[in-house]
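Q: Structure for this?
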Amino acid sequence: MTADISNKTLIDMHRRMVRIRLFEEAAGKLMEDGKVPGALHLYVGQEAVASGVMVHLTNKDQVTSTHRGHGHLIAKGGQFDKMFAELYGKSTGYCKGKGGSMHICDLELGMLGANGIVGGGPPIAMGAGFSAKFRKTNDVAVTFFGDGASNEGAFHEAANMAALFKLPVVFVCENNGYGEYTAQSNHQAIVDVADRAPGYGMPGVIVDGMDAIAVYEAAGEAVARARAGQGPTLLECKTYRYYDHVGVRGMGLKYRSDEEVALWQERDCIDRIEAHLIEQGISTQRKLENVHKSTLKEVHEGIAFAEASPMPEPSALLEDVYA
Amino acid sequence: MAEAIADNSERELPYVRAITEGVREVLLEQDNSFVAGEDVAGAGSVYGYYAGLLDEFGPERIYDTPISEEGIVGLGVGASATGCRPIIDLMFMDFLGECMDEVANQMAKMRYMFGGAATLPLTMLTMSGAGASLAAQHSQSLEAWICHLPGLKVVQPTTPYDAKGMIIAAARDDNPVIVVLNKMSLGLMGPVPEGPYEIPIGKANVVRPGTNYTIVATGRMLHEALKAATQLTELGIDTEVIDPRSLQPFDTATVVESVKKTHRVMVVHEAVRFGGIGAEIAAQIQEDAFDYLDAPVARVGAPFSPVPYSPALESIYVPSAKSIVAEAKKQLGL
Ligand SMILES: Cc1ncc(C[n+]2csc(CCOP(=O)(O)OP(=O)(O)O)c2C)c(N)n1
Ligand SMILES: [Mg+2]
């Protein structure tokens, strides 16, 4: 942990992480209680990645997300009321109830959507990077994708093209060790996804994805490289999802041990940054608790908004198929 | 054949277990068959329909693959062209998008392009259908995409009995066969005989006999059509319900025979109506039975939009007994 990160940024990152954590805890409960339909893929455990990357971005910088997308939207400034409303399938949601968890987006924030297709994001981010370069905007595009997604052809084509065209793209692999119920050692013959970067002519960087400050630093370099016209970087963040692939308990399959989960939880990214903030005298226990409290209030207000919102009218069905 | 349903068995199984049994019979019968797909081994698939097969047959027969659909289907194409009889799993039919080259340009065409030199005894299982709020990329019914490809066979079992028998028939077939399953039917109970049996590919099933109206309904819509048929009885309509079961090849003869008897027909599927398989069926009916028709062929399918997430929209998006009855009344001027 180095010093060239401002207190303001640390506090900002912490707040983003807490917002993700508390939103997801609530969303998971809503799903398990049958209050929201469909499938939610929760981001709990991985908060440092989205937060450490997103603090470098403006609303004009674009990100593409994954099926596990709530955290990316929240870290980019997503509003809880519209998010909960979307999960409830309400007309006031981010996608007017048409997309749900797997397609949640906010184009005004530069969030090009969660994606139901594994590997769907990287080519789109590459295109957004192309667009930034073409329009000479100096914006960057960041694509989040999983270890599992790094086995899709789409990722490889996007990586090659981004490097070839020197596009302002950052490939952020959130390696949480599993694609659904399959361990990484069972889905690829390498340990570090970052090893794939040199094959495409871009740097590959490995970072501790449970450490927001480490993510912040590495992402800062990658984003700066992209903005400076030096092309893409592959940033691999080693992280972990605490809950099941879908929902909290999910299918209840035994594909990883309780000990393994506990070991990662001991390295929790929020505990870690909070300890740092207190140790360094940047914040106090009371101030941090207030962040949790005010966020929780925002969660409750968001749920209340969603519950009070109307379902889409039948006439909405055929709207927005075309421009 | 379906006509013999449960003659030798009182046993009922859910659709999901009938799939398992079908695959199991194939693995027992054919030494060079294996299953490959995402989370099919350790997890038994996300819908659980391969549960227990890894334990019984071991990792030499049941393979978890990376998330690489083009690779998975390519594995099936290459292995089937060279002496294996693979069962390939495509978790959601929507992921045809990821592997369409292997399906459309390789699997479907290899035999023909090679002048008949290649044989691809490949079976692909995939899950279709809306109704679970899984939104636009996990709910589609894309049968029309694959029925348009000469060289492929496409079957769509709607009952537990048919699911088991069609998987076995598909695996015994020396052509690539895509078995389109339905996620909302997994819990559906029905009689399933023990041991191997085949539902012949290309043979429709007259599920409910009737005299003055015909509904041809594919996939899960069969069950909606049967409900609709009961409701139509009250209006004096005696509906014959036909499940094509096999979309490619399609059993035109059974449908036409029925229409010649009933003179009025509706085609129902869950897929988007425009350009759906129903358009083809309707065209074939008017070609072969035009003089027998007392009304235009009616079609019921999903409206022209992606599948919406919100239950409020999805519930009106997917055709139902209600929309079938409403369309029938319109067609018949009731
Ligand atoms: C093209 C495609 N294939 C398969 C799936 C089913 N699926 C959804 S999430 C997932 C695992 C993704 O693993 P990873 O990329 O590591 O992301 P994680 O879930 O670990 O965040 C799979 C196989 C999908 N949605 N899209
Ligand atoms: Mg993963």
